[in-house]
Amino acid sequence: MSQERLSRGAGVLLPIFSLPSDYGIGTMGMAAYGFIDFLVAAGQKYWQVLPMGPTIFGDSPYQSPSAFAGNPYFIDINALVRDGWLSRIDKNLLYAEDPSRVDYARLYQTRHRVLRQSFEESVGRLDHRFTQFCSDAAWWLDDYSLFATLKNEIGGGPWTDFPIDLREKRAHAILAYKEAHEREILYRKFVQYLFFSQWSRVRAYARERGIEIIGDLPIYLAFDSADVWAHRELFELDPDGFPSRVAGVPPDRFSSDGQLWGNPLYRWDVIERENFEFFRRRAQSAAELYDVLRIDHFIGFVNYYAISRGAATAREGCWNDVPYRGLFAAMEEAPLRFIAEDLGVLSPRVEQALSELGYPGMKILSFAFDSDRQNVNLPHHFTENTVVYGGTHDNEPLLSYFAAAPHSVLDFAADYLGVQEKSPAVISEAIIRAGLQSRADVAIFSLQDYLGMGSESRINTPSVIGGNWLFRFGVGDFSEALSERMQHLAEDAGR
Questions:
Q1: Active site residue 411
Q2: Which residues lie closer than 8 Å to 209 by C-beta, 6 or more apart?
């Protein structure tokens, strides 16, 4: 069960929504192709993105209403015109207020209007390619398109508010609803067809240019998702459909109360009895999008923490084992390589699983300087089979992190990195060099770190509602001068 190692190289973490565009959010349009060209010029091998599913309340890509669908907001409007799916672009869709931030409220109000216009113009000439897509994806697309239609009809409420016969997926009610809402369900399928058609071209272009795309597999699913509604038997739910226990992590040095995520937990006994088919399909679906897959919260795929529903904090919970050997054997049937997000306290069972599976773990350089030289995030501890990051999507950019760090952290970092000046800018630059020059096979930094951006460019602050998943770059950020500097850094490090 040991996978082929990732080739030595450098990469950039940049979500799709952070790309520049005229329509309020990054898309799979020309900026995506331009960014791939930028990566090539910068001597990079990897582009890491965040989960690409639809988003709901909170806008988090880790709380999607589908484990398989694509985000409609990422569909490029200009490409719809070029491809003949749309006759004209409504200039009211142009976003001029603040191009550095995503306005999800406005997207919610406007984006489906243009997608519906595209559908109405195109529905009469959908051909065998659309039919084939619907057939190939039917195992998830039928449930998702029905779920999305139902949610829209009840004003976006949770599936527990569906009419009882539809909530319980009674066959007669489902059939009658599909017949009465055939066109709306078809629209939802059309939107997914557009998403996957556009992304397949972006990915093909990346492959042609030698760029591998690293995706992200969230461990848990949103309770209000098509997957939980359609497959209640796979989750720990009570007879009314609500979680009986929920996900989270216990207290640690970062949180005295732990983290209470609230997602429904998997019924691993049922999943194992079904030969891990749900996760086999998750991996196969991910392989259509990515070359490498980061497994979010790998620890929870080996042993998971369960908290009683209604608990105020994650202080009281219990650990439970996952049949991980069968799980990952099923997932490895997909043409993917895996990265284990193994951050946190590792039990002997998790260490054993990592050793057996051979997946590279993660090291975070912004965690490296708050203790002593035994800190496992310091580069002298790295092995080749490692992926090192300046920080993840949940961390501050290096510059703002060190700007707020105590003197002891700056002193240690400057001493360890061998720099005289203890300024955040100098230390951040030295950290990038140290990560690139380390033994780790892959070194991933955010573009924010290369550009020396501050807290205004942070992607996500965990446990904070609102203000996340918003930051976007401008066209001028992808400069020739930056690509030349990045290329030089990568070349010096043998990447």
A1: no
A2: 36, 37, 39, 40
Q: Is 105 helix (H, G, I), strand (E, B) or coil?
A: helix
Length of the chain: 495
Torsions phi, psi of 133, nearest 5? -60, -45
For Cα atoms 491, 378, 461, give the angle at the middle one, nearest 5 degrees: 95
Residue 70, sorted as left (phi over 0), alpha (psi -120 to 50) or beta, turns out to be: beta
- Kindly give, in sequence order, each residue whose CB lies less than 8 Å from that of residue 116, ignoring residues fewer than 6 positions away: 187
Residues 273 and 321 sit within 8 Å (Cβ to Cβ)? no
The answer to which of 149-163, 245-259, 324-338, 410-424 has the lowest mean pLDDT is 245-259
Q: Where are the domains of the chain?
A: 9-69+205-492
* CA 446 – CA 388 distance, rounded (Å): 12
**pLDDT value at 1 more than 60:** no
Residue 13, helix vs strand vs coil: strand
CATH code for residues 9-69+205-492: 3.20.20.80
The amino acid occupying position 416 is Y
pLDDT of residue 466: 83
Alpha helices in 315-347 (DSSP H): 324-331
Residue 341 is a catalytic residue: yes
67/298 Cα distance (integer angstroms) = 17
Q: What pLDDT does residue 96 have?
A: 62
**Which residue out of 212, 216, 236, 341 is catalytically annotated?**
341
22 catalytic? Reply is no
How high is the pLDDT of residue 231? 97
Burial 254-271 (b: 16+ CB within 10 A, else e): eeeebbbbbbbbbbbeeb
Task: Please pick, among 153, 165, 184, 296, the residue that the annotation labels catalytic.
Answer: 296
Which residue out of 121, 142, 272, 394 is catalytically annotated?
394
8 pLDDT exceeds 90?
A: yes
Residue that has been written with the tokens 């510059």 in this structure:
399
* Separation CA 185–CA 195 (nearest Å): 16
Whole-prediction pTM value? 0.96
Within 10 A of 398 (CB to CB), how many other CB atoms are there?
Answer: 28
pLDDT of residue 363: 98
Mean per-residue pLDDT of the chain: 95
- C-alpha radius of gyration, the chain, whole number: 23
pLDDT digits (tens, 9 = 90+) for 410-464: 999 999 999 999 999 999 999 999 999 999 999 999 999 999 999 999 999 987 8
Whether 97 shows a pLDDT value over 80: the answer reads: no
> What is the spatial distance between Cα 311 and Cα 236, in angstroms, rounded to a whole number?
16
Kindly give the pairing relationship between strand 292-295 and strand 337-340. parallel
Question: Residue 9: in which H helix or E strand, if any?
Answer: strand 9-13
Of the pLDDT bands very low, low, confident and very high (cuts 50, 70, 90), residue 2 is low
Q: Are 342 and 361 in contact (CB under 8 A)?
A: yes
